[in-house]
Amino acid sequence: MGMKSVFEHDATPTWSGFTYQGHIAIYLALRKICELLSQPNNLDRNEIASVYQLEVENWEDVAIIGEDGYLSIHQVKNMQKTNITDYRIPLIQLMLENGYMRKNNMGNPIAYLHISNPVEDDEDAIMQALQKWKARIVDYYDRLKEFADRKVEESDRKAFQKEICDEIGQDPVSLKRSSYKSLLSDTEKGIGQSATVTKTKDYVVGFLNYLEESMAIDRICGEVELYRFDNGARHCESDEIYERIVEQVQRYRQITQPAEPLIDVQYEYIADKLLSYMRKHILERHRLMQEGSDYSRQISFGELIDVLDTSLDDYEENANIEALRRIYDEALFQYCDLICGHRQECEEKDSCECRLLNAQYSKVDLNDDEFIKMCFGYNPDCTQTLNNRRCLHELLNNDGLHESVFKVLRKIPDRYFMQKSDRTKTVINDRQNNALLTAISSGNAAIVVAGIVKGINKNSAYVSPVFDADELITGRLQSDDESLWDSDFSNISEKYIPTVTDEDKNSICRPKKPVFVSAEEVIKRLN
Fold this sequence. Notes:
- The protein is of the alpha/beta class.
- Helices cover 52% and strands 10% of the residues.
- The chain has a 6-stranded mixed sheet, with helices on both faces.
- Helix 1 packs parallel to helix 8, helix 4 (123-149) runs antiparallel to helix 7 and helix 16 (398-411) runs parallel beside helix 21.
- The chain is globular and about 95 Å long.
């Protein structure tokens, strides 16, 4: 399955774009595992583990591979669209890939489009649209063959070239891959500059050969469907897919270990571990892609089964960490999708400068200990400990992340970000002051200070970086009253001093009394 293809992803995807896609990939793999374990298949877990594979970002967004090749291929689109024509390009790509795989004995896959928003079209309208697009591509292919075979006098060359370029320029294929777009452009340019009919036809024949050999356009297969979930819905919203994953985890455990039922939080923990596994796989793959190194295109079902069978001894704290990471991913995705509004545009570019889509700043690649430290740095007024389930709500509330953290990352110029070896905190050089980026969302300074004082008593190693800062950037809090800290400052100093690193001791000898500044004010100041 390692054959290089024109359909293969040729740009490094963004993490924001992968969140929904990665959830769909895990869901599909789990559902397939449960299907293979159940009647009429009744396969052994070891056989499933050794034979079946999950593939992401290779031929398609997601694919399932079995012993005889590709079983299914899946395009995943999270767009606020309601008409099937808005999905023309991914559906055409699925038709082309389906035909290519069948022509090259790579399997007989079922091709699916996954959408997060319902479309208004019924099944008949969707089928008619697919047939129309397929017919247009077949006609396009036939027209190119006719151009290659037509007898043309040199005196008619200009009109012939214009006719060809007009046809090619309509491009009903619309494949968004660099090799195809480059060849299309080179073919049009070459035809327009050809001095003879023979040379013109050479370009047409070369383009035809590419369409036949690299894309199997002559075998385009219109058997494509909107994916239906078990509840009959043809769509699944981004905030619902996690629930579908948990359901499949529960189904798997009931099939394989019926005598040991779990509680809801334990099923969620296993689901979160699967998503964590996918996150690490994709981040490593993206890193290797950027380096131009070889990378794994498939995940063995055996690796997923190992996670499904995970031990639940002392899972409580780990469950909270995994849930925190999922909540952060979802908050980042939501910001890009609904607040920023440029997610689709960014994902269609080969590269994007936005810090939200760069792991260096969004920090989705931190290890667990670093991630916890980042969470408490963003929310130093959290009064919970990590073992307390309420911690999840206080450490990662969407309001603070959206109105402060993600907004600052998105809108402040790069030159103001201070690069430090400790990536768990984000520091802005604001008027020669160190401004620590936080997700504090309360608008009352006294309440926030009281929360930070409690926080440093419970989580001093995590909260102490607050007192390296001159300013704390918050969602909406503005206060330059340093006296708020006075009554508790001796206690703060005792907690702060043992946690200061050697690096910080070079420039800071004692804790500071930071003032509060809103994200909007900092953005206005530095733009």
